[in-house]
Write a structure and sequence with these properties.
This protein is α/β, with parallel strands linked by helices. It has helices spanning 12-23, 45-55, 70-74, 81-90, 126-135, 155-162, 201-208, 282-296, 315-326; strands at residues 6-8, 28-30, 37-41, 64-66, 95-100, 117-121, 139-140, 168-170, 182-185, 192-195, 212-213, 245-246, 256-260, 273-275, 303-306. It contains nine helices and 15 strands. The strands form two sheets. An eleven-stranded mixed beta sheet has the order 1-8-2-3-7-4-6-5-9-10-11, with helices on both faces. A four-stranded parallel beta sheet has the order 12-15-13-14. Strand 2 (28-30) and strand 3 form a beta hairpin. The longest helix has 15 residues, at 282-296. The radius of gyration is 19 Å and the shape is globular. The structure holds threonylcarbamoyladenylate and magnesium ion. Threonylcarbamoyladenylate is lined by residues 32, 34-35, 37, 61-64, 96, 98, 112, 115, 117-119, 121, 123, 141-143, 180-181, 183, 194, 230-234.
């Protein structure tokens, strides 16, 4: 009997095996440059249903479809000139676009949670690209974690969180970026940023002109609220560890663990602490964020106190995820 999950380094044999499992309707976790994805054949209704069940994800929360290139993306969604410009300039990369679904899209309606739109992305990671080429089909892939929890950036995170629910984990090491892709909605009305990420609002505006939306300098986070039903991953509580998270900490409470940032961490001595980036490098901090939250998320602590993170560049995406990690759990999705 095969032990579940098979955890294999991404050799060409392992990638071929992963592709075979996906084509047979199994779930395979694989690395992308952002976070690990939990892949299923997007055209296979049973596989997609198993994916929702494995994550404990509500069926109203749609999935991102991953493909090998722009051409494959155009077989799924209706691209206009703006979408094509973004696709050719930002792909392969940490960018997702929401567009109208094509009537003949080879993708189960469940992937879109019944909406007439679909989210598509061409990941940059070599392993992800090799896998997508080997499968030759669109792959639905949410982050490979239980719904609402912390995203995985290492194979062990996936194994600990999903275990036997996945057939195989392609163990490609740590994810380079460490935060999920930027999501832009181009399906109706003005372009809207649904989730900030490594590709910045400014970069997108440089290509297609002004966009509206979340989490960046000119709008408060709660401006998102009216759009929450459209992207349920954007609900207040998400990306959350088990412990409470306290933001902008400048002192440390009893039994709190410290997630520090920058050279002048204010507490010295015996407390449990990890530093996102002692040099104050926001890219390093993004890459470390989920792994450090995972390791501080232990019952020995009462809470995780996080020092202030500058709200510039990828710091905007870090603060977006931290706000959701700290949000009251009552606001969590079911
Ligand atoms: O970096 C990433 O995007 C990772 C890796 C694995 O590619 N994937 C990821 O997927 O973060 P997930 O499922 O954890 O987050 C997808 C987000 C959710 O907030 C979902 O609501 C939103 O995308 N989404 C998907 N399809 C949508 C649609 N048609 N309209 C609006 N939002 C959509
Ligand atoms: Mg997720």
């Amino acid at each position: 009997m095969t032990v579940r999950p098979e955890i294999l380094p991404p050799s060409s044999a392992a990638i071929a095996r992963a592709a075979e499992l996906l084509r047979a309707g199994e779930l395979v976790a694989f690395p992308t440059e952002t976070v690990y994805g939990l892949g299923a054949d997007a055209g296979n209704e049973d596989a997609v249903e198993a994916l929702f069940a494995a994550k404990g994800r509500p069926s109203f929360n749609p999935l991102i479809v991953h493909v090998a290139d722009l051409e494959a993306a155009e077989r799924i969604a209706v691209f206009d000139d703006r979408a094509r410009t973004l696709g050719s300039c930002l792909w392969a990369g940490p960018f997702t676009v929401v567009l109208p679904r094509r009537d003949d899209a080879p993708v189960s309606p469940m992937v879109s949670a019944g909406l007439d739109t679909v989210a598509v992305r061409v990941p940059a990671s070599q392993v992800a690209r090799a896998l997508l080429r080997a499968v030759g089909r669109p792959i639905a892939a949410p982050s490979a974690n239980r719904s609402g929890g912390l995203s995985p950036t290492t194979p062990m995170h996936v194994a600990n969180d999903l275990g036997e629910r996945v057939a195989m984990i392609l163990a490609g090491g740590r994810c380079q970026i460490g935060l999920e892709s930027t999501i832009l909605d181009l399906s109706a009305g003005p372009p809207r940023l649904l989730r900030p990420g490594r590709v910045s609002r400014r970069e997108i505006e440089g290509l297609i002109g002004p966009i509206v939306g979340s989490g960046e300098d000119d709008e408060p986070a709660d401006a998102l609220a009216p759009f929450a039903p459209k992207a349920p991953g954007q609900l207040a509580s998400h990306y959350a560890p088990s412990l409470p998270v306290r933001l902008n900490a400048v002192t440390l409470g009893p039994a709190e663990a410290l997630l520090a940032f920058g050279p002048d961490a204010f507490i010295r001595g015996g407390v449990t602490r990890l530093n996102l980036s002692p040099q104050g490098d926001l890219h390093e901090a993004a890459a470390n964020l989920y792994a450090m939250l995972h390791s501080l998320d232990k019952p020995a602590h009462a809470a995780i106190a996080v020092m202030p993170i500058p709200d510039v560049g990828i710091g905007i995406a870090i603060n977006d995820r931290l706000r959701r990690a700290a949000a009251p759990r009552g606001l969590s999705q079911p």
